[in-house]
Amino acid sequence: MIESLRVAASTYASDIDNLITLIGVLVGFWFILCEVVFFWLIWRYRAKPGVKAEYVTGEEKSQKRWITIPHLLVLVCDVFIIWGAVRVWVEVKQHLPEDATHVVRVMSQQWAWSFDHPGPDGILDTDDDIRTVDELHVQVDTPTIFKLESRDVLHSFSIPAFRLKQDAIPGRVITGWFQPNLTGTFDIQCAEICGIGHALMPARVVVESAEEHAAWIAEKSATHLASATNP
Amino acid sequence: MAQTVPSEAHGHDAHHHVETFWSKYVFSTDHKMIAKQYMFTGLAMGAIGAFFAYVFRMQLAFPGMSVPGYGMVGPNEYNMLVTNHGTIMIFWVAMPVLIAAFGNFLIPLMLGCDDMVFPRINRLSYQIFLLSAIVLICGFFVEGGGFGGAWTSYPPLSANAKYNLTPLGQSFWLVAVALEFVAFLLGGINFITTTMNSRAPGMKMTDIPMVIWMIVIASILFMVSVGPLIAGAVMLFMDQQVGTHFYDPTTGGDPILWQHLFWFFGHPEVYVVLLPAMGITADVMATFARKKLFAYRTVLYTAIGTGVLSFTVWAHHQFIAGIDPRMAHVFTITTLLISIPIAEMCFVYIATLWGGSITLTTPMLWALAFVAEFLIGGVTGIFLGASGADIYFHDTYFVLAHFHYTFFPIAIIGTYAGITYWFPKMFGRMMNDTLGKIHFWGTIIPFNLIFIPLFILGAAGQHRRIYDYSLFPELATPELQAVRVFATVSLLVMLAFQAVFIFNFVTSLRRGKKAGENPWKANTLEWSAASPPPHGNWPEGLPSVYRGPYEYAHPDREEDYWPQHLPN
Amino acid sequence: MSDEHHGESHQGEHDEHGGTHHGNYVKVWAILVVLLTISVLGPTLEIKIVTLLTAFGIAIVKAYLVAKNFMHVNVQPRFILYLMATCLVFMLLFFAGTAPDVMEKHGDNWSKLPIDPSIEYDPHDAHH
Amino acid sequence: MSARPIATTRSTAGMPTGRLAVWWVIASEIVIFGGLLGSYIMHRLNHDAWSNHAANTNVYIGTFNTLVLLTSSLSAVLAHKAADAQDGPKAARFLFLTMLGGATFVVVKAFEWRMEIHHGFTITANTFWSFYYTAAGLHALHVIAGVIIMGIVAQQAKKNLELHRVELIGVYWHFVDVVWIFLFPLLYIAK
């Protein structure tokens, strides 16, 4: 359902979309069923002159059946949904890819994003790191780990195209991951109200092929001293 | 003692009934007057909330345009508008109208009492509520403008003026909310004790009309859940004005703590306003389907079960807010479990129609609409309760549309069902049914046309509380903008149709057809009193109860209704 | 809500019923004072477990004594006791749901940044 | 003093309406203090350093105040006993004793705080002291409110009016006492 509205550009995007579709099918069935029965009853039992309503307490088993059985079926559907939700959640939020070498730091503040990329040495927190503002550069088909921090208030690091969202909390470092599988440029939004400039902190994530990314690093690290000395 | 009651009632009518304007309308301890005060205050606040919605919807549809009747909307004003729209609609409309107004009006009448058990505490509760509303409104105009940190008011943004830039607005907002809580604690004690202790002779617990049960369960939920938030509000106020660091991580505080304190109250709060609306719907549907409520006990138990479960699900509002990911599993399971009692309630309501004799009066239309629309709100909630799917939907317009599909049926549809149903009892006259139906369709159709588009925007990844999407290339597309404009236009249509209701209400007050004691041929006790009931409700002596509230179409009786107070 | 006492029981507020039988309150008070002394002396031994037992164990005992003998919970209708218990259970629930975030320094894929020790240890920097 | 509605004199639930209401008030108070103390305990267990701060609280003053509150609870319950014996004046005397206890508690606390603030342990010193002042302050407000209400009740009791209220204010007072019974170890003796 979602792909048609927002391109799916990360490996787990399709899992989340499938979960949404699963839920959509299950609840859609119940929703349509209920509404159809509901409106049919309204039409079927409309007041007719001289016809008195039936006296149904709904306390006898034979009558209760009509709600207890559907109600057990709903429970079954819930189990399926829980199973799907837990699976996706574990994959997206709990398991970090072991082979992930690419680590970036995402620092949020009122009202801008700054991103620390590892420099040519490929290691974060060395003095050849590349810091950019409001523009994150990552390599396609590469599992990327981000360390999310905030300087002041709550922000939320959200890339709809990746189906990625995680609040940034001052005083905490939150680790997450994504693996883009489409090159291109996608929106980064702040999804947690963070003051007057909440709408004014847009950022972009640039997903590049390996060689483009290497070229970008090389070009940036030529000037990395400048960017490193005045963060 | 059957004789003592009237004399008592008289004694007390006689000796404090010099009615001046002030004692009758302002400082009255009569539960019916307090109910009307709550209702009109709530509806007035509702008008403010609706105006705010109009302003920011206009800004979203036509960014940067000067909104007629308001002017240019800056980002800080936008935040202030959305924040207070939410705060007002939940705390100053849904709660006062659904719980306080209908609770005050119905509980003594439906239980056969002459008044609440603590009339003066009742009056005090309204006065504190009024004060809270005034404080809130004052907060819009103080130096620095009104608070704009969203109705959830997450710190550190809300805890420090250097972040939210509203040094006074933040505290006015907080104090107003705290006062409002105090008002409802006082009111809630009244509702609960009255229902527990003062039921009419012969009224067993299963003879209590469902709407009373629901209001009382809601009051209990409120009293038991609001405490942590009051404590949290005290801490937040200290952070704002004294300079403590309860929510400041740099000094050992924790911003997440507030989110837990808030949502531990905030989720039961959803059911605090939902249950009374459910109860109103149950009574209205039973009356106009001429049908006994299907499985009364089941409804009661599911309501209680929902109430208890609602204390175990709060963190599903925080899935991606930085809580430990392992906790998400617990709250996903509890959240999906709570769909069971709610689904059961909906089934019961549908089953109640079975074999009925349904007349589509205005109140009945509203009641049926409540069920039909609330189902949408219910099923879309599943997407958000499932942690995996919430990763995408959290804080998008999908969430917004979802909870408007719950809160609109609750606060607006439920309220209109209640007002149109009990208007004859409140004011002694009937409302115009034709105008009522015009107003109904003019509200329901645009309502769906507002929020179905917002589901689409949310599914497209549009986030909330952003006053202008032009900076986000993915969201600034003409297609999505067209959807926003469509939603806004629908809103304008819906607001326009509310004029019909106001006109109908005002004219019916004076020129409406005189309503007898029991215009709807309903069973519950309030219809055995005069319309409108005098002070003391039954001056000739309080009624006794002989049967349940929903004995419609009983085989042993040729009329299709059997009022509770008739011996046979 | 219990269903006994149907209809108008016109005693109500005016005469005290509900079987409040008054025990020897001074004795209870004496016990409370003794317990208080123990709870103060216990921690001076500087043994963690003793501290917890005396300080909090005794607090619970004291609360029980006050609730039973002074507030007469035991002679109230049962639902009062259940109500109080429910409130406490909900508080435990709140604690259980909140502690994994607030009471921990790090968890699954998150960790708190260290706090500035000057603020943590020196109470004398009163202002910022 | 308007006439009491008939509704107030009913008791379907098997207990007087006033007492029922007081228990509901206490229920809502339990969750207020529960939320505050729960938050405090979480922080306390998360910050080992806080026991150093707690070491700066004055156990003797705390103990004395606990003793005062326990004693005032005794006089409150004796007032209840007297009220049950329909002896209004005696009940009033005991209530005045209780008020005296409450007043002592507040005054002592004021001196204690003054001393601590003088040593630089202000409410903003760090989050332990923030909790210390907030929790104790919230409790002190309950004490003050209790004393005021008790004054009104005592005035009526003296004239043998509304004697049932003696028990109601007593129950509230014992609750305030119980809260302190837990605050005392949490803030003072747990090191």
Can you describe what's shown?
The complex is a heterotetramer of chains A (231), B (568), C (128) and D (191). By secondary structure, chain A is α+β, with helices and mostly antiparallel strands. Chain A folds into 2 domains: 13-94, no CATH class; 102-229, Sandwich (Immunoglobulin-like), CATH 2.60.40.420. Chain A is built from 4 helices and 10 strands; from the N terminus they run ααββββββββββαα. Chain A has a 5-stranded mixed β-sheet with strand order 3-2-1-5-8. Chain A has a 5-stranded mixed β-sheet with strand order 4-10-9-6-7. Chain B has helices at 4-15, 21-26, 31-61, 75-111, 119-141, 161-164, 169-197, 210-242, 255-288, 296-309, 325-353, 362-385, 387-393, 397-427, 433-459, 478-511. Chain B has a single domain, classed as Cytochrome c oxidase-like, subunit I domain (Cytochrome C Oxidase, Chain A), CATH 1.20.210.10. In chain B, 68% of the residues are buried. In chain B, helix 3 runs antiparallel to helix 4, helix 8 (210-242) runs antiparallel to helix 9 (255-288) and helix 11 (325-353) runs antiparallel to helix 12. By secondary structure, chain B is mostly helical. Chain C has one domain (25-121). Chain C contains 4 helices and 2 strands, in the order αααββα. In chain C, helix 1 packs antiparallel against helix 2. Chain D has 7 helices and no strands. Chain D has helices at residues 6-9, 17-46, 50-54, 59-84, 88-118, 127-158, 164-189. Chain D is elongated and about 55 Å long. Chains in contact: A-B, A-C, B-C, B-D, C-D. At the A-B interface, helix 1, helix 2, strand 7 and strand 9 of A face helix 4, helix 10, helix 11, helix 12 and helix 13 of B.
- Bulk shape of chain B: globular
The level 1 CATH classification of chain B is Mainly Alpha
| CATH domain topology of chain B | Cytochrome C Oxidase, Chain A
Give the structural class of chain D: mainly alpha
Question: What is the CATH topology descriptor of chain D?
Answer: Four Helix Bundle (Hemerythrin (Met), subunit A)
Q: Compute the number of structural domains of chain B.
A: 1
Mean pLDDT of chain B: 92
Q: Any guess at the CATH architecture of chain D?
A: Up-down Bundle
Basic shape of chain D = elongated
**Percent strand of chain D:** under 5%
Q: What is the domain tally of chain D? A: 1
Number of strands of chain D: 0
Structural class of chain B: mainly alpha
Find the biggest chain interface.
A-B, 89 and 98 residues
The share of residues in helices of chain D is: over 70%
Rg over CA atoms of chain B: 24 Å
CATH superfamily of chain D: Cytochrome c oxidase, subunit III, four-helix bundle
Largest sheet of chain B: none
What is the residue-mean pLDDT of chain D, rounded to a whole number? 92
Helicity range of chain B = 55-70%
